[in-house]
C-alpha cells in the first residue's frame, strides 16, 4: 500500500498533516508547533519527495530513509516535519488494524492526567493566580504549570522578584491539594535555580 498524497493545513502556530494511501485510507498527524507553517514547507520539500510512493506500512523505514536522503540538510526542522508524516501514518495504521496507536507501539490505553498550563511571563503573579483559579473552577484541573524567570534570561527574572513572588502566590491561591510545576525555559543556571 503506497502513500499517494500528503497535505498540510497550517498557520504559524499549528500544522496538521493528512496522508492518503492508494486505497483511500487516511491518517492525520501534526508537525511540531512553533513556526509550524515553515515546518510544513520543509515537509513538502524534504519529506514528501521521499514519502510519496513509499510503503505506508513501513513507518520505521521511512523514518530512517528521510534523514539519510536529506543528510546535507539535517536539523530540527527536518525532524519536526517528518513527525507530521510519521504520526499520520501511525494514525492510518491504527485505523486499518482497529487498534489504538499506543497498542501498536506496545502500550495500552489508560487515563492520562492533564495539567493547566500558562505560557505567560508578562502577567503579575496576582493576575496569573486568578487566571489559573478560573481554569481550576471551570475545568477541574488539579495540577498547574506556570512560567518563572525570563525566557533564556541568563539568571534574570522577567522583572525583579517575580519568581520569588509567583511561586508562593500560586501555592496560596490554588491550595495545598494541587500540584505545581514551574517552567523556566532554560532561564536559570543550576545554582540560581536551587
How would the blueprint of this fold be written?
Elements: E1 3-10, E2 15-21, E3 26-30, H1 36-51, H2 59-69, H3 76-97, H4 101-104, E4 116-117, H5 125-139, E5 143-147, H6 162-174, E6 179-183, H7 190-193
Parallel strand pairs: 4-5, 5-6
Antiparallel strand pairs: 1-2, 2-3
Helix pairs in contact: 1-2, 1-3, 2-3, 5-6
The CATH architecture of the largest domain would be 2-Layer Sandwich
Total number of strands:
6
What is the CATH C level class of the largest domain, in words? Alpha Beta
Shape: elongated
Q: How would you sum up the major sheet?
A: 3 strands, antiparallel
| Rounded mean pLDDT score | 94
Q: Helices and strands: which structural class?
A: alpha/beta
Q: What is the oligomer described by this structure?
A: single chain
Helix content: 40-55%
3D structure, described in words:
With 194 residues, the protein is of the alpha/beta class. The chain has two domains: 3-104, Enolase-like, N-terminal domain (Enolase-like, domain 1, 2-Layer Sandwich); 116-193, Nucleotidyltransferase, domain 5 (2-Layer Sandwich), CATH 3.30.420. Helices cover 44% and strands 16% of the residues. The chain has seven helices and six strands; from the N terminus they run βββααααβαβαβα. The strands form two sheets. A three-stranded antiparallel sheet has the order 1-2-3. α1 (36-51) crosses α2 (59-69) and α5 runs parallel beside α6 (162-174). The radius of gyration is 21 Å and the shape is elongated. The N and C termini lie far apart (54 Å).
Amino acid at each position: 500500500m503506497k502513500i499517494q498524497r500528503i497535505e498540510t493545513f497550517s498557520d504559524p502556530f499549528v500544522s496538521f498533516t493528512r496522508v492518503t494511501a492508494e486505497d483511500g485510507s487516511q491518517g492525520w498527524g501534526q508537525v511540531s508547533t512553533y513556526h509550524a507553517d515553515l515546518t510544513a514547507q520543509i515537509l513538502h520539500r524534504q519529506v514528501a519527495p521521499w514519502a510519496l510512493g513509499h510503503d505506508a506500512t513501513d513507518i520505521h523505514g521511512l523514518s530512517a530513509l528521510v534523514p539519510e536522503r536529506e543528510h546535507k540538510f539535517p536539523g530540527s526542522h527536518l525532524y519536526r516535519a517528518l513527525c507530521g508524516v510519521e504520526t499520520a501514518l501511525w494514525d492510518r495504521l491504527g485505523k486499518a488494524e482497529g487498534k489504538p496507536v499506543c497498542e501498536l507501539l506496545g502500550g495500552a490505553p489508560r487515563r492520562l492526567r492533564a495539567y493547566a498550563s500558562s505560557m505567560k511571563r508578562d502577567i503579575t503573579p496576582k493576575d496569573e493566580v486568578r487566571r489559573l483559579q478560573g481554569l481550576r473552577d471551570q475545568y477541574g484541573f488539579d495540577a498547574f504549570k506556570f512560567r518563572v524567570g525570563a525566557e533564556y534570561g541568563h539568571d534574570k527574572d522577567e522583572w525583579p522578584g517575580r519568581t520569588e513572588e509567583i511561586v508562593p502566590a500560586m501555592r496560596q491561591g490554588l491550595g495545598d491539594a494541587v500540584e505545581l510545576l514551574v517552567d523556566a525555559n532554560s532561564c536559570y543556571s543550576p545554582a540560581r535555580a536551587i
